[in-house]
Amino acid sequence: MKARLKNNNLGLFLSAGILIFFILAALFAGYIAPHDPEKANLELRLKEPCREYPFGTDHLGRCILSRIIFGARVSLLVGLLVVSSSFILGLAIGTLSGYYGGWLDEMVMRIVDAFLAFPSLLLALGIAGLFGAGFMNLVIALITVDWAGYARLARGSVMTVKEQDYIKAAKGLGAGDMHVILCHVIPNVISPLIVMATIGMGYVILSAAGLSFLGFGVQPPTPEWGSMLSEGKTYIRSAPYIMIFPGIAIMLTVIAFNYLGDELRDLLDPREKKDID
């Protein structure tokens, strides 16, 4: 494991560095942003990048750099809320379904299949349109379409683990179902879900940006990367930097989470381990 980590340390540290940068920017946005992200000044509208405004200003004269910094707070918070909620919900449902089997497993898996049958972004768009635009509605829409993948993965892992000898031994010693599930099953099935959650963070941030771009997510003037792209599309020819910089922020964050997830998969999957001298 250590040898493989050394072989891939450049990409791993780079992706981790990008994520740490955005996390710190989100946490300390109020201290490092050079300007008020929501303050409009029409006299400064569409100002090209310069020393005072490194990323330029948008159509309302707002500092794009400041809006990207504060937008990191919104995008990462959406990702954290959606992934953590989907992770817990999917793990609980998938574990119970796989452990008990029978009619419960059949019913749960048909529900999961129904959610997975629809294109996730299209389903999220429909749910967001039903509930209306807004931060919490965006989070609810993404959780609704995201939990099913975790449930299916957890259920498949539990179906394998529950047949192991140590599970049968625990039951033979009189351990109850909840004790077996919490102390023996979940610790042995959680690794692939952690990998899925890491990669899923990038997907959720991208989906949230897409919904906001279409007007079903976080609403202006709150800075959010997807809504910034939507606001800048009108000026794609005259002021392309309005879309370029938030687009780069989305791209870097998604790539970093995907790469980190790939590395975690290699490190946590026993089948990937190789002895390297």
Short summary:
With 277 residues, this protein is an all-alpha fold. It is 73% helix and 0% strand. The chain has 11 helices and no strands.
Overview of this structure, please?
This protein has helices at 2-7, 9-27, 29-32, 64-100, 102-117, 120-131, 135-161, 165-172, 177-213, 225-232, 241-268. It has 277 residues and is mainly α. The chain has one domain (2-30, 61-162, 189-272): Orthogonal Bundle (MetI-like fold). Helix 4 packs parallel to helix 11 (241-268) and helix 7 runs antiparallel to helix 9 (177-213). It starts with a helix and ends in a 9-residue tail after the last helix.
C-alpha-based Rg, rounded: 22 Å
The CATH topology is MetI-like fold
Structural class: mainly alpha
Order of helical and strand elements: HHHHHHHHHHH
Q: What overall form do the CA principal axes indicate? A: elongated
What is the averaged pLDDT score?
87
Given as residue ranges, the uncertain stretches (5+ residues, pLDDT < 50) are 273-277
- DSSP helix count? 11
Looking at the overall shape, the CATH architecture is Orthogonal Bundle
- Quaternary structure: single chain
Sheet bearing the most strands, described? Answer: none
- Helicity level: over 70%
List keywords for this structure.
277 residues, mainly alpha, MetI-like fold, 73% helix
